[in-house]
């Protein structure tokens, strides 16, 4: 079925070639010859300057204007922060330059300061180009200071209260590791959509859209070295090459990462069975981790004509992850010790990922455009775990070996049609097939061998329409998704399972702009699918009393969200309510021998009230930005036969300050406080972080040096407690993130990395 759908989509894509109209194409640039995004382009008739047609430039400043006689009349170009420009349409050469708007007062020139953050149809648009945000060395440091974004305790970046966002780079769906291949100087602007509509994949609770810069044609080179000294030493080397001419873009990238860390993770479990209380304490559990990773890609895209672009991309990652874990387990019953043992674990995991993408982007006319993307992904994983348990002179040694292969084939076709000025209709479809094969063998008595296959077929279609009327703009859409999931146990056919899902996800929004104020009221429905690890029935051995396993019976979670956002110059505020059914979370079971099984399950529902506020302003060399956020959950579980409420709010406050000094010095001070609170069935204690960074640019910003102190207070520790079922679980996750680092970046004629294809398989790849 999927092959027929892909063939039909390609046929529709080609049939559209018959649709056309007279048009005029060009580009709007600034005085540095950089594209001006979202500039208004209007064709006026002579002699009375009556409006004929209009359009808006894209993120690169390019535009296509359709009209019956585009070579007649006047062309007027305008954009916020720039002086308007009018030229004869007959003499238009394909590019126009806008100058920044300024006012002279008694010999002093005052240049209008455009706000860094703006609300645009419900999305928070952050301008990076030309701001101090572009001077950060690392993309995560820049993203963490955006309103609504925050650091996690493991050092990653997520949307406050929503988790990891779905990422788009130049409207191409991308993975998180692809985003790390960019630097802030590559980026023009970032859009954060916390309530995405129908045109986006139904999976994911937020969307982060990144638009990169495009500079002059020619060669570009980026070389970077990072040295980090924390508890252990780590280093990263990156090399990227780009070549552009008018029609061809070629890019190649390679990164080697040698990451070494120490993790402290003490745990305790209390298992209540009847009148008995079993205690399991591991107060000194810790890891030494060594990860070596090679990442590469190569891509090329070519403009067949000004309206048709084709391209291909291949990329790969090889990871070798070795972890040595030590600890001691004290086991007791009703506060009387029964046994103690020392536990050593050796983990070795090798993973190879390969991805290929083919695309064709087309503008069939000024009214109709399309994007066709085909993807194939192959993931290979090999896993070995050796565990040695020593107790009172007794020695127990177990070994587990596993391997898995995963392949994803997907296709996506999307159209945009503009029937009239201010009106846009989007529609499209995507299909994917995921096949997973996993094997596991173990010498442990309580870990059964597993051999199984999983197949997942998904087909989706969407349609949405947006329109503008005066100060108002409207958007409404609907997305339909069909999914079939098959689980085949090669060792026990009684465990075979086939399930089918049909879901409809509506969305709508209304926005209003006037006198510098912008506000949006939006509604959306989303889903969260279980990861392949969560669906696996494979068992992962921890010790004689504890192990983990997946749950092939998990259902996707569905969330409904209502959000209101408002902004005015330096001020931004949003508030939302979310209702999620079939909430996915960890849970625990017990079996004979007082063994504890950690697994995953669906809860009936969870609800959230959330609010985020940001204010930012520039005072000379001082650029402060303050973000406040609160998330109030409403969630209940059963604990020891009684309902237990998790209603404690969690709050965050983040203050980012940048100081720009003469001679290209930049000082950044980032402080964040997290109050703790409830996240599902887990209660978190407060933690905080403080980062300092000093940067200096040399040779007209071709060479840049950064000195950074990360988690200077050594306070990024994740202390949690979970009470659910018959188990009380406490844990401290101390990833020892604090470090001091030196980053050296060399840029030669720096360009953006702007592969124009879209990844139709990104959502499935994120679940690997």
UniProtKB/TrEMBL annotation:
Residues 1-20 form the signal peptide. Residues 370-742 form the Outer membrane protein beta-barrel domain. The keyword Signal applies. Pfam families: CarboxypepD_reg, OMP_b-brl_3. Keywords: Signal. InterPro entries: CarboxyPept-like_regulatory, OMP_b-brl_3. It comes from the Bacteria. This is Outer membrane beta-barrel protein. The lineage of its organism: Bacteria, Pseudomonadati, Bacteroidota, Bacteroidia, Bacteroidales.
